[in-house]
């Protein structure tokens, strides 16, 4: 598997020379963080986040562009009678370790290996990975074992993801590639609706998409 490598500074230099654009540094929305690829070293100093409070009263931190896109997705879903909220998004390494400890005690080590990332290698560190939960008839449905009981609702949600720059991150039948079991609630923001729609329409993982990209030292344009 090829690792998606981007040199952001080189991309900004080319941009300034050819287009006279600002030198503002941005994040790589296609950054691959998984069991083999850790969070980029300078990510936390670069990413811009916002905070929101969900219906459970929990504070959720999200990358700014991802949150703006989520609000549009949420509005579109509500027009079809589907209601969601954010369970979690960005997590620190320390918070991820707390989840590992809690889930190990509650579900066991085997469950944790299938569903929970090692601290430092969690996509949630990016702020681009969003875990949704359902609101059905005014009732919050947020436990994993309860949410999987509504495949028809998740299907409606997944149909709209690409339009807003999101993909379903851990697909059913792709566990050998992603390293995780199917999670209908875990979506990932990749910023570009064209890329997101292509990934969703082909039913491929982010790993598979990036493996087909040519290696480059020039960063893609940032919004």
Write the layout of secondary structure elements.
Elements: H1 8-19, H2 43-46, E1 49-53, E2 59-63, H3 64-79, E3 84-88, H4 93-107, H5 109-115, E4 129-136, E5 139-141, H6 144-147, H7 151-161, E6 166-168, H8 175-178, E7 186-189, H9 193-202, H10 206-211
Antiparallel strand pairs: 1-2, 3-4, 4-5, 4-7, 6-7
Helix pairs in contact: 4-5
Provide key terms for this protein.
223 residues, alpha+beta, Muramoyl-pentapeptide Carboxypeptidase, domain 2, two-stranded antiparallel ribbon, disordered C terminus
Describe this entry's structure for a reader.
This protein is α+β, with helices and mostly antiparallel strands. It has helices at 8-19, 43-46, 64-79, 93-107, 109-115, 144-147, 151-161, 175-178, 193-202, 206-211, and strands spanning 49-53, 59-63, 84-88, 129-136, 139-141, 166-168, 186-189. It has a single domain (40-205), classed as Muramoyl-pentapeptide Carboxypeptidase, domain 2 (2-Layer Sandwich). Mean pLDDT is 87; it is low at 1-24 and 216-223.
The assembly state of the depicted protein chains is: single chain
CATH class: Alpha Beta
In N-to-C order, the SSE pattern is HHEEHEHHEEHHEHEHH
Helix content: 25-40%
How many structurally independent domains?
1
Which structural class fits the helix and strand makeup? alpha+beta
């Amino acid at each position: 598997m090829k690792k998606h490598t981007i040199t952001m500074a080189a991309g900004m230099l080319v941009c300034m020379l050819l287009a006279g654009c600002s030198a503002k540094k941005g994040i790589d929305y296609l950054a691959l963080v998984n069991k083999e690829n850790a969070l980029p070293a300078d990510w936390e100093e670069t990413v811009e986040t916002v905070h929101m409070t969900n219906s459970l009263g929990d504070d959720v931190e999200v990358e700014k562009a991802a949150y703006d896109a989520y609000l549009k997705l949420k509005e579109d879903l509500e027009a079809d009678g589907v209601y969601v909220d954010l369970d979690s998004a960005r997590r620190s390494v320390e918070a991820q370790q707390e989840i590992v400890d809690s889930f190990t005690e509650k579900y066991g080590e085997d469950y944790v290996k299938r569903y929970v990332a090692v601290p430092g290698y969690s996509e949630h560190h990016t702020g681009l990975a969003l875990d949704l939960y359902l609101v059905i008839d005014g009732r919050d449905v947020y436990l994993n074992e309860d949410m999987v009981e509504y495949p028809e609702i998740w299907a409606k949600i997944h149909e709209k993801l690409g339009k807003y720059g999101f993909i379903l991150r851990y697909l059913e039948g792709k566990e050998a590639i992603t390293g995780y079991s199917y999670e209908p609630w875990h979506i990932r923001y990749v910023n570009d609706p064209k890329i997101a729609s292509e990934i969703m329409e082909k039913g491929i993982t982010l790993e598979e998409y990036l493996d087909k990209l040519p290696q480059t030292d020039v960063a893609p344009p940032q919004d």
